[in-house]
Amino acid sequence: MTDAELQKLIDEAKECYESKKYEQELELWESISDMEPNNPLWKHNIAFALMNTGRLIEALELFNFLAESHPYLSRVHNNRAILLMRLGMDLKYLIPVFGQALAASRDLEDFMRSFINLCATAAFGLDERGNEALDQIKKVSFGILKKGSPPEQFKKNKVVLMKLLVAYKHIGVFREALTARKWRVAETELNAAERKFRDLQLGAFASYVKHVQRTARLCRNVVAIIEEFGTDPSVSPDSILKKFERLLQAADSLAETEKEVDSTFRLLDILGFFLSGIVVQLRFLAKPVGEGTFKNASHAAINRLASVSFIDLGRILSSLLQFIDRQCTGLMRLSTATASGQIILKQRDDAWARIAFFCNGLAFDFSAINVAVAREALGWPHSPLEDARREIQHFRSFVERQAYKDIFVAGHPQENIARSLLQAFLTPRSYREVPVRGGQTDLLLFTKNGRFLYETKIWRGSGYYRQGLRALEEYIIGESDDESLAGIFYLIFDPTASQQAQSYLRSTLSTSTVGGRSVDVIIINLTPASPSKKRR
């Protein structure tokens, strides 16, 4: 093969690296190495490509071989250190590895290149303990730099290195905040890092941080939609699809404008694979007809990219794609086996509910799913208390929507009318002002699953509100042996335009412990906002 043909292959391999086609790049470097088997640079490039394709152990074995056989190649030591860092090697064992990477530098320029590569990997690439790795890099850097620098030059270089480390420390904090989804902290730390790089007149470094900021915001938006998906029952496949399509366009645009950015920060790739995969799946769910084209290998690409960094995020995104894929597969089989569009849509809605539950588990560990919603989705029978709570919510909506005027007489709200409305709304047998050992109840409801107590008050200030709590306490203490009491509700009808009850209690729905029992406190607004008379 001629030198021109060899150079053509080398250029193709470099182009594959820049376009992140790592599998093709690996094949090209292997072919080039077969032509020049004694050239260690080609073997180094093979090891680096193996690392980028996720074949980390193979990459490490080749890096180890090259570090022993060609110890003068600083890039071998540098990338070996980066790989070990990403593999989670204990930081105390990385000190000599960092030392090898920096000591192998040919000159100050090569030293700074290795130093920055190590710092960038520790700060940008590690989900946690990045700043501890930076401290270890600092330990070995100054000693090596001092040996190779004139005294007066060493002091200047040391100041530069210290300022660089401060900037990268901010990035290290950002990475831990990003992993923990502490978005505000992440944004603040990136802003601080950018200012430090600009103070050092390192415009390219500051521009890189800007790229990271845009990618981090994209990540936040992706997670926000997953959270919405898992908590808002009103969302539909179409609405979620449109949101993810917009984010996919944003990711593509960002990838195009930032294509020259170093690929150390892989978050954009992970997000891009996720968005392209889920958009295809959601398009099928929006119109589940015939054979679907939703199957893709995006989750495999995410697993590879997140094998050593962004591990938690990669797990969330990859597992969501795989779960939706299974739902789509089942739906596709049904859609090709039945002629009933109604049945298909019913199954699609069931699949959609399962996906929403899965999203909630990924984002919140199911903490945002209350028991009533879970029982509804799983087809389990409701508890009597949950049924009663749901009925009270319907009552509140009924009053605030249309019956609030009926509670007023000559402009003044009447408790007896509010209580009568409640009694008429409740379906089982109920009795007002039932005598008990602790006095008498406002309303006592009897069901086959137990009894429910209701106290009703018009809001007339905090003192009158507490009077209602004392009435409940008297009943609870007087009937402490009543094991059939399944639930207690305290309804506050607020006639004030300024919603004073909500201001006092800080919520329209809350709970209060009275006499050792939990009491549901519900505020019902009797002065809803008037609709605007402006033309639209």
Could you describe the 3D structure shown?
- The protein is α+β, with helices and mostly antiparallel strands and 536 residues long.
- It folds into three domains: 3-227, Serine Threonine Protein Phosphatase 5, Tetratricopeptide repeat (Alpha Horseshoe), CATH 1.25.40; 229-378; 384-525, 3-Layer(aba) Sandwich (Trna Endonuclease, Chain: A, domain 1), CATH 3.40.1350.
- It has 21 helices and ten strands.
- The chain has helices at residues 3-18, 22-35, 40-52, 56-69, 74-86, 91-103, 108-125, 130-147, 151-179, 183-199, 203-231, 237-257, 267-286, 298-305, 311-337, 341-364, 371-378, 384-403, 415-425, 462-478, 500-505, and strands spanning 408-409, 412-413, 429-432, 435-436, 439-440, 443-447, 450-458, 485-494, 509-514, 517-525.
- A six-stranded mixed sheet has the order 3-6-7-8-10-9, with helices on both faces. Strands 1-2 form a two-stranded antiparallel ribbon. Strands 4-5 form a two-stranded antiparallel ribbon.
- A hairpin with a 2-residue loop joins strand 9 and strand 10.
- Helix 3 packs antiparallel against helix 4 (56-69), helix 7 packs antiparallel against helix 8 and helix 14 (298-305) runs antiparallel to helix 15 (311-337).
- The longest helix is centred in the N-terminal third of the chain and has 29 residues, at 151-179.
- The N and C termini lie far apart (75 Å).
